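Q: Joint fold for the lines below.
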Amino acid sequence: MANYSTNEFRSGLKVMLDGDPCSILDNEFVKPGKGQAFNRVKLRNLKTGRVLEKTFKSGESIEGADVMDMDMQYLYDDGDFWHFMEPNTFEQHQATETAVGDAKQWLKEQDTCVVTLYNGAPLSVTPPNHVELEIVETDPGLRGDTAQGGSKPAKLETGATVKVPLFLDQGDVIKVDTRTGEYQGRVKD
Amino acid sequence: MRDFFAQREVMEVDTPTLARASVTDTNIHSIAASANGDSCYLQTSPEYFMKRMLASGIGDIYYLGKVFRDGEQGSRHNPEFTLLEWYRVGWDEHQLMAEIEALIGLLLQQLDRPELAVSRISYCDCFIEAFNIDPHHCALAELQELAVNLGYPSWCNESRANCLDLLFSEKIEPKLPDGLVFVYDYPACQAALAQTKLYGDGALVSRRFEVFLNRMELANGYFELTDAAEQRQRFEEDLMARAAAQRSQVPLDNNLHQAMQAGLPSCAGVALGVDRLLMQLYGIKSIDRVLAFGWERC
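A: Joint structure:
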């Protein structure tokens, strides 16, 4: 893998730090007028999700990480692994529960997700920003109550529970923002 | 700015931005160029030319214009920027600090901005407050340990000057008070072109100061070194340090050396980043926004 010098650090660049793949979030150039130049770098550890700050001497270089983001179709889970497929090559990848993480509650078969591969194996999964899912369990809907501000919990087909307005019923399909877990609207058939 | 200096009878001078010699400082990189078959450099500051003028007896002078530094790019850095540099003959660094305060005070007044809080603190007191260590006396190993403890393991072999810079930039500068802050008596290992003096406790410090405006480094000043032989020795040490760090060698400025041999009058000088001053005066976060064309758009 190539080495990257501090002046090549860009947001999104994937590098190895203390044995873990990290994604660079921010790179700030710091230099006292007469002094040594530094780069104050913010990175996200892609394994743990933790954000850390490191200060490098400008010009120092670190090893790049073999990390790639790929669009893949979610196929199914077999209880142990979650299976994804590259749409062009039909190559399949299996992701562990740790790699899928919180994304699993939004994964609907055939939806396209971003799978981050590290040394060829899935490291993390990012669901689409918006998903359309069916309500499988909720209190009966209050017909006509579309104006009141109240809400109730609803369980969706993928297992996630979100707050929805009172008028919605079992069998309705809704749109959810996966980044916030918030109800966005009802999807009409 | 020009009115301020005109009223105080400080003369504006223009110096070349392209010259055959350049700065030897290990951490300042000149942009190399070529003219008429000679290799030359875009100047990183007008200092050497202004000192040649001072040695010729010109008196108090200032320069307001462009300078160039390679490898400097960020929210506070642009490889080409505007510097205001001035020299006061017969003054020391504390008199010059008072004049900087007056200049910035006047600019704020003209913009109807509130007066700034002003504080003065020695480099030593900054370190005692932040780390409870004396930066002039403590062992290098102690500084390296502090740098490593901050979470930077690769700092265990760094030089004294680099460790001090790291600790200052990361832990002291962000906590400086609001307003204008003068930090004076820098360590001797960071003297550059400033005279040194001995503290009562035996510490050798440089008569160099830095000015911070709302925690942003704004200016760097000296009670100027006038001893030609000592200056020559420091330049040669710089070149050795550059060689050790595998940085490019630059020719020494013999014209400056001769001028200093002929006699540089006792004086104090300061260089102030005008783009950064504008950023602070108008509350702008990125240097790009005070430049018509920032480096990304050049």
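Q: Anything notable?
A: Residues 148 and 166 of chain A are 8 Å apart (CA to CA). Helices of chain A lie at 97-100.
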